[in-house]
Fold each of these.
Amino acid sequence: MASIDEFFDKVISVKLPDDRQSVDILDQTLLPGTIKRINLHTKEELWDAIKKLKVRGAPAIGVSAAYGLAVLANRIDASDFDSFYKEFKEIKDYLASSRPTAVNLFWALNRMDDKALSVKDQSIGSIKETLFTEAQKIRDEDVAISRNIGELGFGLLKDLKKEGKEIGILTHCNAGTIATAKYGTATAPMYTALEHGWAGSDMHVYCDETRPLLQGARLTAFELYNAGINTTLQCDNMASMLMKQGKIDIVFVGCDRVAKNGDSANKIGTSGVAILAKHYGIPFYICAPSSTIDLNTATGNDIPIEMRDPEEVTTMWYKERMAPEGIDAFNPAFDFAEHGLITGIITEKGIATAPFDKAFEELGI
Ligand code: MRU
């Protein structure tokens, strides 16, 4: 089995090639069968790759949008800032329209925008270079941030460790290495444990397959298994049984947007997992960089929830359509775990506990 670093290198979610003419992504729609990278050159290709989940996961979406904006801004043919900025804004707004829920997309694009404005008095060439530097910073910071989340989550795992017994961890969807720049968020505690010398058999990760797009089966099971961690895949409706049987000690999930009151939107089904965890008295943690916390959104009810093509429910993955022609299908991509169900939100700055708005303030978020 390849070392964990070799594995991370093989599945880097987003890269900026040396020629800076495109954004290089791992096409996540082809996993786990095919590991294939593609280069996105145009704004339409970028938009489409985000929309179709070729690149997905809140932090990875943010990094690809930042790289993409830098690449596209570099092609703007303008001699003064106002005409440069007009085109820059058009590209930014277009990329921002690709997906509505993960706030990291808007956060990364706004950070690039603020950077452009902060150097508006410089030459256009120098502004373009600054944008490349900023995008690279967003990517590099994401690695450090998820490693910090990993350390904090690893602390929780250490507290649960009992001699001769593996720790049962349940996760939903994919908040792993391929959803971020390196460690993932929900997987960061496990990868950090490996870096601290734990064996893959010290833990046992139960991955919800995560209907309808199967990010748990195709992506999380793929990456944890390849990293040498004991991994089991189950259908989403089996989580309750696992919890009842005492197999789950802790739940770690990722997040697309945390509201000011701590309500946390993540892949559809997360709210059900949180309710189950509360029922069985299992600690339920959201793992999220502070860029996922949106203090401008008051509660989960204010988070825009992406609705996706009903065909993802009725047809995708089946040899032939499995639902009656013409049937209505409900396909929200996200839901939110209410703050009262959440034990803690692990950010790179510390673990926030209720009341969350106060905790965010104390952590300097
Ligand atoms: O629709 P997706 O696959 O982009 O949804 C992803 C999730 O819900 C992840 O759990 C979340 O973005 C956190 S990624 C570190």
Amino acid sequence: MQGFKIYPESKLEKNNKTYSLAQKDLKKYLLSDDGVSELTHANANKLRKFFPHLNPTTCGIKRSFGFGDRLGLATAGHVKTLKARDIFPVFAQQSIREMERTGRSMEDVLDDAMWGVFQAGYRGGYGADIDHVKKEEDVIKACECGYTMFTIDPSDYVNDRAKDIVSIYGKAIEHIIRCYNLIKKKTSAPFDFEASVDETATPTTPQAHRFIVEKLRKAGVNFTSLALRFIGDFEKGIDYIGDIEVFKEQFLAHAAICREFGGYKLSIHSGSDKFSIYPIISEMAHGVFHIKTAGTNWLEAVRLISHKDPALYRRMHELALYSFEKDRKSYHVTTDLSKVPALDKLSDEKLPELLNENNARQLMHITYGSILKDMREEIYKTLNLYEDEHYKMLCTHLGRHLSLAGI
Ligand code: ZN
């Protein structure tokens, strides 16, 4: 077909018909012997039926890694990152909050990951995590969409001010149990289930960890991962803040409890750029864990734009400064904007270096919703134009994550 650049790895065959993904004028299409079609939800469903490996699947308690992709453009790059590494990837992983801010639906997130898997010719199986889901109505929706992993966030039911474990976590655990039973009722398919109490004011104690596991087990909740609030600060898009020796000690205690009970893995949220503790996590957890990243993928996209289209980067940065106070409210960050170098003092060549500075990283990290609302088309255009470079950057950056985690 004329003018179409076919992704050679994508080619699949069914009933003597071939299907492949192609690009023309920066837009992607599905090519088949029936002609050219758009990447619609209906076509995604058609393809899923023909090729079961394009559907997300469950992981169980194997080691896994979440590649949260806010833009829906990164999966093919993430596939390259995997190479021969022994890890179960969760390519579709977005929270309700992220979807609200990026203007994507639960279906969009699943479809984008699937097109990426198709494009890259990946056949190794991948997960789809509805992350930090709070409301029961969203749990039901995610079931209907075909998510294979449910991360239940009961933080609305955690009583941080209480003094004893039962009063702090009792209602939250009830909510997790309710959601689990809801999924059981809604779907006959297997699923991965994560209980996440990571968004509490104080770190989870070993006693609380035991209490949560015992309560969930007693109620018949077969959870595959458990996210705790670990000691120290897990701020967005930057390395761990805190005493690494103290973290090590605490994490070791939790990892030991996890092994003692067995049957689930610890899940580490806000895993983006936590390079200094990755080796500890890997060692203490005996190589079995789940790590979630999201923002760091977006920041690599921003870094690419700072290289390739400095003028666009400058506008994104200005808007980020303007939106920061409003956007920071739902994020845990200690960004000091006075430490972000002034844009007008920086030459274009110096712009990418901003993405190495923690305050500037967080500035761009948490304002993604406002930036996308205003400049979505230009951002997607630039990333599509420099697709190979984008994948290469993801591969290097996420590859560093995986290597440090011993994967
Ligand atoms: Zn979390």
